[in-house]
Amino acid sequence: MALVSAPGSYIYVCTRLRVRRSSLLPREELLRMLNMELSEIIRFIGETGYKKEIGELSTLCAGTDLDLIEMALSWNMAKEFHKILEIVPEGLHGFASAYLRRWDFQNVINILRGKAQGMKAGKIKEVLIPAGDLDREFLDRLLTEDSVEKVVAALSGVRFSHIIEGIFAAGITDASLMTLENELIKNYYEDLAIVAGSGVKGGEIFLDWLRMEIDFKNIQNLFRLREYKEKGDILSLMIPKGGIPVADLVRLNGIEARGEFIDALKKKAGFEPLQAALEDLRKERPIHEIEIALTRVLLHQMSFMSKMHPFSIYPILSYLEEKKYEVANLRTIARGKKVNIPTEEIKRYLVI
Q1: What is the pTM of this model?
Q2: DSSP assignment letter at 341
Q3: Which partner from 14, 146, 169, 262 sits 20 to 30 angstroms from 322, CA to CA?
């Protein structure tokens, strides 16, 4: 799309996003932090885009240095995502808002799992990102409940409460929590597909993005299943609506020889960078390295698509993902430093 033909509001948003993207921490800065202590990391990020949250929480947070970092990252990301929604043009607002609802089910899962494990409300709150429809006040009310059952009851009427109630009808266990997370993920993508296919302008482009993201998640799931040698109900673990049909994914999971599996998967891969990444995974590697390698390709492709369609939903979603992984990298570094994991080992878990 030519710049001269783009709506003024789209040009404004893309300009704002370029400024925001330039403020993201570069790879070199993240690697520098690997050689810092937690107190040094706090001072360092306190001079970046996280300055306000570090300043506010330094006097409010009574926990450890790690608690301060965790809370500051969560607050900052939630605020940033809400700011993005405020400047998104009307034509793209519905897509961005629907995309951010992923934090609703992730927050609920974190609360349910935390309550089931007996975690304190303050520790659970550190990782919550109130960036979807469920705001901070609602999540705080859930945290005050003293059991998983009461949290479930308090969720009555929420968009996906029927899924929670149905799965927990037979009891709340570790297995049911895992099933719930899987079903909420599938429900989330199903809702996004409905939004994309509703006839709204830009929906087809959004749907292309959606198919790509689902494919990557399904491919990661295939590698997880191979790692843990799962042979059960594979179909229920795959997310529909992707570019690769679920039936094909189930068939691929049945290929035992790794080389044959990679060859078959490469034929289904939609573009060269993914095919190259899969070729690099022909040799056995730890599952976290596989997931990170695939995530890097996904982020690269998202950035490429945002450049190909500069006045669409792509630049917005690409930035949201880049910001999410910046926070994830900072959490990884801080948590690794807290328990004295060797620098090179922490580095292997970074998406950079």
Answers
A1: 0.92
A2: -
A3: 262
